[in-house]
Each structure stands twice: as C-alpha cells, then as structure tokens.
Amino acid sequence: MKTKAKMAAAGLALLAGAWARAATLHVEAESFATLGGWTVETQSIRQEGSSYLMAHGYGVPVADAETTVQIPSDGTYAVWARTRNWNAPWTGGAAGRFQVVLRGAGTPAWTSAELGTEGADWHWQRAGEAALKAGACRVALHDRTGFNGRCDALFFASAGERPPARTPAGTVRDDPKEWGLVVVGGGFAGCCTALAAAREGVPTLLLQDREVLGGCNSSEVRVGLGGRIHAGPYPKLGEVVAEIQPLFGGGVRSTSASTRTTARTRPSSSPRSGAASPASPPRAATASTCSPSRWTPCRRTASPPSSPATRARAR
After folding, report:
1. What is the pLDDT of residues 81-137, one digit of tens each?
2. Which residue pairs from 188-196 have beta carbons closer than 8 angstroms and sit at least 24 positions apart in sequence?
3. What DSSP string describes 160-203?
C-alpha cells in the first residue's frame, strides 16, 4: 500500500509539473494578427533568431498592434516582453517606450508598466503581473512615443517559470573565392564604393544585412538624400552619387549647363562596365537658389511681383 501511495504521489507531482509548464504562453510579436502602425523589422535576425515589431512613427505614437491568444488556465501570470532600449548607448532616458495591454474575458483591462526602458541589449523585461481567466485574451502593443519602440516577443509565465533564452539563427560559412575589395554595408557610401570599384575591374563583394540597399536613404528609413557633390578641390567627387540618386524629390541639383549635362545625361554605354545607362528626363526650368558653379540642395523660389513701372517698361 505504501508503494502504491508513493506512486500515486509521484503521478500527482508529474501532473502538477505538466500543468505548470502548460500554463505558460510564448507569443512572437511579428505573428500579431493586426500590426496597426507597427512594422516587421528584420535587422536583428542574426542576433535574436527572429524578426521583431518596431513603432516607427517619426515622433508620433503609432496605432496599436493587436492579436488574440488563448490563456491556458485561470491564474496570475508574470508578463514579460523581449525588448531593448535602443538609444541607451548614446543618451539617457528611453526614446522607444511602449506598453502591453490585455483585455481578457471577465477581467478588467490590464496595462503594463512602460517597456523598452532598460538595457541596450535584447533581454526579457518584466512588464508586471496580471490576473487572467482561461480563454481568449486580446493583446495589444501600445506605443507611447513614436520613436522606434521594439518588441520581439511576449511571455506569460506562472508557477515560477521564466522566459526562454534566444538562440541566434544561421551559421557563418567561409567563402572560398578571393575578392579584391570587400565592402561591408550597403548604405549609399557602400553602394557607390562597390559600383566604382567594380567598374574599374576590381573583383568586389558588397555585404549587406538588410532586405534593401540604401541605408538611411532606403525605403525602410526614408531620409532624403542631400548634400554637395562636384565641389571643392575634387570636382569629380560625387559622379556615382549623381548617377544613382533619386531624380526627383530632395536630391541635389545644379544650374550649371555643363555640370548638369555631365551628371544627368550619361553616354549610351560605359567602356568600363559595358552596361547601357539611359539618359535622364529633361527638367523644367525653375528659379533656384543654387550657385551656378557648385552643387547644393535646391529650394524653389517664387519670382518677385513686378511693379506697374516695370510692366510699363516691359511693354
């Protein structure tokens, strides 16, 4: 009888352990049903093994990302968010702050403490404790700042459970090929460097960890390209920039006919690359504050109104 009692006690302990493990819930942020104003960001896949959600609102809080999860059983859950304070290495405070909001059946809405306020590295930040009932629960990520708050995942823990560690994705493999130049980073400087070197016949490898090229000038960040080229003691500096910059909307422009022809109208083929380069469409003439001899960001200006005396002389 004692042996049977011990076996029954052991069985109950196993069941209790299984229940405790079942009363945890792991939710990947990028799997949310509705992203609202949040976007899926892939920048940290190699570090985190996962993409994450980012609230990129130019300083204006974005709409909530929402989804529905199934709470496994009634109880008090410790809620954790995997996040980081992205500006911690440079400044005090936290620019990208957000909260977790829970709306479960039969329980009042619960709002966490502000998250994204601690360390610069990815980590699990404790959001607080919430009393939840079994069943459907609406989960929302509520942005507070519009300045790139980040959330990788949420974890609901009970019975002393803690969030799991992340496993970085992918392995690094050697490339047996030899290169004359390796450019690390596909921002605008990297793109121009790689293109110029390749046209000179240098075996060139451009490494980029993003889905698109362009860095801050890409469609991901959307900072307009500007700055001066063809200036100073190096008049040819900026040839590649002028060739591949956006033709309209914030680029640089010259009022010098000779410079504009050199930069805008490329020959039908390049002896170095052998690739055809179509000529750019002509621009309409507009008043500009550009210097005729230098490349500067242009501002359109209205012509000053003429006086009656001026109009009379013109007639």
Report:
1. 999 999 999 888 999 999 999 998 888 899 999 999 999 999 999 999 999 999 999
2. 188/214, 188/215, 188/216, 188/217, 188/225, 188/241, 189/215, 190/215, 191/244, 192/240, 192/241, 192/244, 195/240, 195/244, 196/240
3. T--PPPP----------S--SEEEE--BHHHHHHHHHHHHTT--
pTM (two decimals): 0.56
Q: State the Cα angle at 259 between 257 and 263, rounded to 5°.
A: 120
Bigger pLDDT: 112 vs 174: 112
First to last CA, the chain: 121
Q: How far apart, in whole angstroms, are the C-alpha atoms of residue 119 and residue 253? A: 43
Contacts for 172-181: CB closer than 8 Å, 24+ residues apart: 175/205, 178/203, 179/203, 179/204, 179/205, 180/204, 181/205
Helix (H) or strand (E) holding 287: none
Summarize pLDDT for 178-201 with one digit per residue, the tens. 999 999 999 889 999 999 999 999
Query: Distances from the Cα of 172 to the Cαs of 3, 169, 264, in angstroms?
Result: 54, 10, 41
Mean of the per-residue pLDDT values for the chain?
74
**DSSP H helical ranges for the chain:** 2-22, 45-48, 188-199, 239-244, 257-264, 308-314
The lowest-confidence range among 88-102, 225-239, 266-280 is 266-280
Smallest CA-to-CA distance from 77 within 69, 66, 85 is with 69
Which two three-digit tokens encode residue 78?
């410790």
Distance CA 268, CA 265 (A): 9
